[in-house]
Structure formats: structure tokens, C-alpha cells
């Protein structure tokens, strides 16, 4: 194996005020301590010695294992599961970055390689995560791989399929009433010393290193397209993904590797939309009422400052999509051979909803596999024993398709 | 995009007798017509102009898109979904080739890129497949991508999750009694002109081009390890995978790229095991009674000659594994961060059951994601509202894990 390049991470910096800096350790998992209030928390980000980034870092192909981007990530002592290196496929008039191709079949693996590495660096006996979906399973997988324990605080409402998923990695899974999840997580952190890899603050801050893993999506898209896209549409819950991808492209521009950076669009369920609310009202972050939606992976009443920064700094925007719009996008991606979870189709749904033209390629991040929705939609299959029963029930519309 | 290299496929050759050769087209989807009998069918394989294989073909990294191996595959007019280029990860004392990282999250995508390409070459309006699982969904995805229709003849017993999966790609899905599946498929082939991408013969022959796609697993393992492994253990239903991987390694040896080839081990559910029976009895193929097993993806009473050839020609063997042994292997892989479907753990289960030592690396092919089993096992999650309820229910055993 080649020698792994060394992290150039130098410290943490407040997103509230770039003049406020902290050492790299310990990770500020409860946000920026100097600027937070009872109503609003600001995350921190990781800073690097950008002047020491090796030449040729972005010349390598977009294969798996985040360690290939080690200089621009925090230290990565947690072993890889082969995360990243996902394909970029044309479908429905855009490019889809197919994150269902990760080790636990979602983009969250990029975050958890980084966050579980932090747990190892800090000497924690395990990680704790409040999640009913992809994030919990991914954290459990990376913890298991690293020899750490994992506690997952789930809600009773999570699909049974996802509960099997989380338990497969040996995590201790608890079904916890929603109002008890954060207090319980704080107790587990304070009393058991477990490292928190999900949010603990009033508006979202999450793990300070987590979005650094998502930067690698930007690096890979740049390598795959040979240029930055004109716009990126991302399914948005807490906006860690949106911010991480934005930061990656901003770094490419800062390093002189790319001349431009894309406009970033948050795509949230219309049933909630804290980032759309914050941007519209000029607030640094917002909390909204959350209505009913099947897009459980991005359904959150709580937003954070990261998403607002990504939208504003990139000259992008916010889009709200209904479940019907999500289902149409999910269906159309399936007709071109890509089965995304309902939330994973939010990028395409948002692009269509916005209806804007862009001077260059548009990338929609497809976050996870359709298997994650199981129980949300039930199939109806025609029974047949004769040829006539088959031909009488063939669908009328031809496949969408694309010839190679 | 670089110019795609040209296929060097020259024709088809009978596995019953290498002196019996046929033109490359049409694909002999009902096996070798000269040697088949009422009780036994022999498949054909694809032959190539091996003396014209470009130097450096095996120097490229193992990224996605089978077209990188185009010289040693039949023509590939079907568009890619980014199949192949899957990670090889150490776990449980072996290397696991994680085929859950393919476009529809199983190894079948490699076969269907090739088989759906054949449907395009032959000018068929669609493909038809008898499958209740991964194969049907993969065929549907590649057909959709290529603008072809797909008919999937499923059994009522397939898990609901898998039915959603197949339908997501726009296939026409029919629930067909098992005794009607093959007659109905033959009618759809003969009367609608659909191209068959699953088996139509008394013992298994399947699509003649299909296993060519699996050869790429061997090419990738060779590139990833920097050498051929000593042994490969593969989950085995019809043994197309086992044979394809074997053929790939045999080609590497024939081309002088590698000096050795691995011993190949078929890992079948103990409830059936037609290949174990055929090898033990000296028959070219066998049909057995099939008992109950949860490993539905590799549960078949019908074997074929390909698997027998792979085992005998490689000096390998056959292993039968019980559902309990499969579950133990599945659980232990999960504890190192890899969640395979039950059938996908058959390679590791077979390696353990055999208990043999090998003079070199052992590779187990992990065929698909644990999501494919949904409905087979139901989770039980502890409810908690207090810290004491959490600590009283933490699991006793530490995570297995491996530090990076």
C-alpha cells in the first residue's frame, strides 16, 4: 500500500465569524461556544494549510476510499469501507451523482468515515447517533469496522427495513420518543464518553468534521466532468451535504484548480423547509413546523447555518418540493435505470420545480437506494398463468431509455 | 470520451465439446443445439481472438463501466449504469469482493450489461426474464436504460421489497406459478420476439454471453490484489458467477498475464446443491430436490454444466452450507461493516465449512446487499426513554472491528 498522505487540517473556525478560531481538537460537537445562544447555534468548520496542498491531488481518478483526498480532510484513522468513487450518470437531462453506490448505500458513508475517525482520535469507546435511517446505519457500520461500539437512538416510526439495516452492524438500537432523543444522547455522551456523530444543538450544527467528508463529492464531480458544473441540486435535511459539496467546490476555486464554482440549490420537502424559510427571512437559521411527508430522510423542522451559507455564498437558491413531485422524479429516474429513495430524488425534483436554465452542466446528488423506502409504498403485481394474461397487462408506455 | 475499444469476440463454442463451434450471432439462448438431450443441456461460451488482446489491458485501475474490458467481452451497445469497479475488502480473515456496490446492488449487473446488449444487437423489442430477485431487477434496469421493454416473470413467494425493486424500473411484472414460468417465457420469446436473459433449458444454460460479464470480477480481483488469489468461494445457484469468474482467471493465465489461477469453490444451500451432486456423481449436470432455505437467491434444484467445469478444471470443490451457517457468516460480516444478503454470505460460510488452508489470499464473492432479504428476518428494537434503560440493554460483546 502507498504511504497515506497526511492531513493538512490546522484548526476549527466559526461559521458565525471567521475571526473566531479554535484548535483542531477536540471537535466542537456542540457548535461554536462563543457565538451560540439559547435560540441559535453556529457550527464550526475545519481549516487547512491550503498553501501546502500537493500538486496533482485533483489529477487522480475518482475511485473509492476517501484517503485519496487525505490532505484536505481531518485525520482518517478509521478504516475504509471503500466509500466514495461513485459514478456520475446522465439521466433525465441532468447528471446524477449516484451515492447509493457507497458501502451502506448512501452518501452518509463519507461523513461517517470522517466522524468515526474523530471518535478514534478522541479515544471514545463508541459513537452515539440519533437517527432513524441512513445516518445511523452508516455510523454503525464504520464504528463496527473500527472496533468501536455504537448506540443508535431511533424513532419508532422508522421503516422496519431500516431497523434491520442498523442492527446488522451490531449496533445497540433503542426506540426513543422524539422529545427524549437529544437529552438521552447528551447523557450518553457525558456519562459514557461516547462520541456524538449527530446533532446536539437547538439549530443544527452536527459534527464539525462531518461535512468535510462531503467535500469529496465535489472533488469527484470536478474530476468526472473535467470542469465544475453550473449548478448542484441536493436533497436537503440539515444541509450538511449541501454545505460540504459547496465547500469542496469553493476550495477548488480557492486553490486555483477551477475558475468557477457552481450555484448550490437546497431541495427540501414542502412539508417543512427550514432552510428556505431562513434564506427568505434573512435569518442565519430557522426552525419550522413539519407537516406530513414520505421523504423521511430529509424531513426536518430544524435547519442550520451551513445550508444558508452554501445558498448565499454560491448565488444559489432554495426549492420546496411536494411528495408528488418527488414521486414523479423518483419514477422517471427509475425509467432510466436509477432507483433512488424518495428523498434521493429531491435534487431532480428541485431542478424541475425551479425551471431555470444554466450555462453548463447540472448535477443532482442522488443520495440513496430505493430500498431505504421499504414499507412506504407497496407493490401490486399482476398474476398470470397464460400468454393472453401477459399481453393484456403489458404497460402502454415505452421505456424512456438512452442508447449508448 | 475516449474511443471504446472493439470486441474481439469471434464466435460461440460448445462446453460439451470444444470442437463444436458456432458463429457469434445469434446468441444460442437454448444451449448447444447439437449436444442437448431431453435430460441434459450444454451451454455454449464465447470465443475471442486472444492473440489480438491489447498490451496493457490489465494495467488499468478497477473502476466502473465494463467497457474498459471491451476486447474480452461481446459487443456492448447497451449503455452503462456504472457496473463493476467494486471494492475488495478484508473481513473475517478473507477478502470480500463487495458486489453490493453495483448499480442495482448485486453482481447481476455485470451479466445484464452484456445480455441486454445482446438484445439490442438482435433487434429485440424487449427482454424477458424469469426471476424473483436480483436478476429480474437488474435486467429491468438495463433494459430501461437501453430503451427496451422488460417482462419479469416472478413467483408469488418473492419478498415484497424485491417486487417494489423490479417495478421501479418500469418492468411489466407478473406473478406466475413456478410450473408455468418457463413455458410462458418461451411463448413470449417466440411470439413477441423478446430476448430471453434467463434460462430456458432442462439443465441450466442461461444466456450464452451472460457469464462473460462475470469474467470482469476476476480481472478486477487480479488488479486489486496484484496477483491471482489461491482460492475463490462463490455463492452458487446456477453457477454462472462461479464459471464466469473462473473463465476470467483462466484467460489471465492463457494470456500470460498471470502464472496461476485460483481453485474455485461452489457454495450452495444444503437444502439443494445440484452442483455438489453432479461433481460427486461424475455427472455433467444434475437436478435435485430442493428443501426449505431462506437463501432464496441461490436456492435452485437445477444445476448446469458450467459450475461442474469450473470446479473440476480449477481443482476446486463443492461445499454445502446450512441456513444457520449462512446466518453466522452474514452476522460476522455485518460486525465488520459489510451487510450482505443471506445468500451473499455463502462464500464466507463455505470457506469456513471447508476449513482448508490455502497458500495465498482467499476471495469470497459477496453478491448483494442485506436489503434484498427484507421480510425474511424481522428486527426487535428495545424501547427506551431513560439512560438506565439504555445501559441495561447494551450488548455484552465488543465490536469485532479492525483498526486502519
UniProtKB/TrEMBL annotation, chains A, B:
InterPro entries: Ser/Thr_Dehydratase (IPR050147), TrpB-like_PALP (IPR001926), TrpB-like_PALP_sf (IPR036052). Keywords: Lyase, Pyridoxal phosphate. PANTHER family: L-THREONINE DEHYDRATASE CATABOLIC TDCB, THREONINE DEHYDRATASE, MITOCHONDRIAL-RELATED. Pfam families: PALP (PF00291). Residues 80-365 form the Tryptophan synthase beta chain-like PALP domain. This is Pyridoxal-phosphate dependent enzyme. Its cofactor is pyridoxal 5'-phosphate. Gene3D superfamilies: 3.40.50.1100.
